[in-house]
Amino acid sequence: MKSVAPLTIRNAEYVVGDADRGVNAAPRAGGLRRAGAVGLAALAALVIAGCASSPKSSFYTLSGDAPPAPIGAPRYSVAVMVASIPDSIDRPQVVLRTGNGRVEIREEQRWAGSLKDDIGQTFADDLARALPDASVYTQNRAGAGSDPTYRLAIGVQRFDSVLGQRVDVDLQWTLTEKGQARLQCRQAASVRVAAATDEVEALVAAHRQAIEQVAERAAAAIVDVRTAPAGMTGLCAS
Question: Which of 137, 173, 138 is closest to 157 using CA atoms?
Fold first, then answer.
């Protein structure tokens, strides 16, 4: 019988031997090493591609530069605290209003810390700039035994963000004075600020402006309380 020619498969780096010579099929070591290297390279490329395609998270804060120190020795002190904030925005993600009672929670756009604390700190910083003769700080940063002249409590009623359009901020706040049983002041403020661009950064900047406007009103009210005749209470109530 005529012998059959040997079959050789070069691309796979395997060789089927000639039965007449008694050579068995065997893998080539060099080919295995090359195949393994190619496999590792392909796996690394997939991992890199996956990382490159993952959305990058951005983090935001309302707080800006720290206010200057009081001029000379502070004449009085104000402790600021945020008493309440809507549950819908009390989360790490930036929440956008999209209309028809719908909201969008942005997983890749987040607050750098607690939004509640950030609002309080931003308000306190703006208040300190408007009251250069006062020591202003947030309640959670008050030192042991702190006994401020005034306590200002903020209730956040609304903190809406509409991408590319505006922010709407509604704040209520009350002012109590040390040694006084009654409120010295109660006010509510609604502020709308247009967004400069259609980026989330523009909404953050607009919220910062809105808080600054309310803080300036609160500062003016504190000045009114301090300059009012002794014994008067309930000033600027609304």
Answer: 173
Sheet arrangement for strand 183-194: 134-138, 76-84, 150-162, 166-177, 183-194
Distances (CA, A) of 49 to 38, 44, 52, 54: 16, 9, 5, 9
Q: Is the pTM above the cut of 0.90? A: no
Q: Please state the separation of Cα 59 from the chain's center in Å.
A: 5
Q: Which residues of the chain have pLDDT under 70?
A: 1-54, 142-145, 181, 230-238
* Spatial separation of the C-alpha atoms in residues 154 and 119, rounded to whole Å: 9
pLDDT score of 56: 87
Which token pair is 44? Answer: 């690394």
Q: How far is CA 222 from CA 25, 89, 117, 218, in A?
A: 94, 29, 22, 6
Q: Give the three-class secondary structure for 189.
A: strand
One-letter amino acid at 80 equals V
| 3-state DSSP assignment of residue 105 | strand
CB burial readout 199-212, b (16+ within 10 A) else e: ebebbbbbbbebbb
| Per-domain residue ranges of the chain | 8-53, 58-227
Please determine, looking at this structure, whether the domain spanning 58-227 carries the CATH number 3.40.50.10610: yes
Backbone torsion region of residue 100, taken as left when φ is above 0, otherwise alpha when ψ lies between -120 and 50, otherwise beta: left
